[in-house]
Design goal:
By secondary structure, the protein is of the alpha+beta class. The protein has helices spanning 62-71, 83-93, 104-119, and strands spanning 6-9, 16-22, 25-30, 36-40, 45-47, 52-54, 59-61. It has two domains: 3-48, SH3 type barrels (Roll), CATH 2.30.30; 51-125, Arc Repressor Mutant, subunit A. 27% of the residues lie in helices and 23% in strands. The strands form two sheets. A five-stranded antiparallel beta sheet has the order 4-3-2-1-5, with no helix packed on it. It has a two-stranded antiparallel sheet with strand order 6-7.
């Protein structure tokens, strides 16, 4: 399971793995409860592999942020922490993130997604290995 098969769906909590493509859309499976559901063109779907975080110089792929969080020693904070704690933590993980364009709500989502992937036994060490040639 790579990030190119993991999606976030607007209006639906959690993350989903793409199981198959159908004539009318996709069949996805929740990483939290393993329930499958059909997704059609009316849903706004974001592939995690295509998401990037703004820095002052560039945009850093989300997969690189996940790798950085994974390398961090100790417990990873909860996404329900206060904004100051979230900003401080994210500053340690991605020191030059653009504080004017990356909001605490974005950071909450990234941390929540990280925890969902970690609970699904996602292998963060292999993230980006196959994708670097494609870019």
């Amino acid at each position: 399971m790579g990030l190119e098969k993991i999606v976030a769906i607007s209006g639906k909590p959690g993350l989903y793995e793409i199981i198959t493509q159908t004539k009318g859309g996709l069949i996805v499976q929740s990483l939290i409860d393993k329930k499958r559901l059909p997704i059609n063109a009316m849903h706004n779907v974001s592939v995690l592999n295509d998401i990037a975080i703004y820095t002052y110089d560039d945009e850093i792929p989300l997969r690189e942020v996940f790798k950085s969080i994974n390398k961090k020693d100790g417990d990873i904070i909860n996404h329900k922490e206060n904004n100051a704690t979230l900003l401080s933590f994210f500053g340690e993980v991605l020191p030059d993130f653009d504080e004017e364009r990356v909001y605490p709500s974005n950071i909450k989502k990234v941390i929540q997604w990280y925890h969902i992937l970690a609970n699904a036994n996602f292998d963060f060490s292999s993230v980006g290995e196959n994708n670097e040639e494609e870019e």
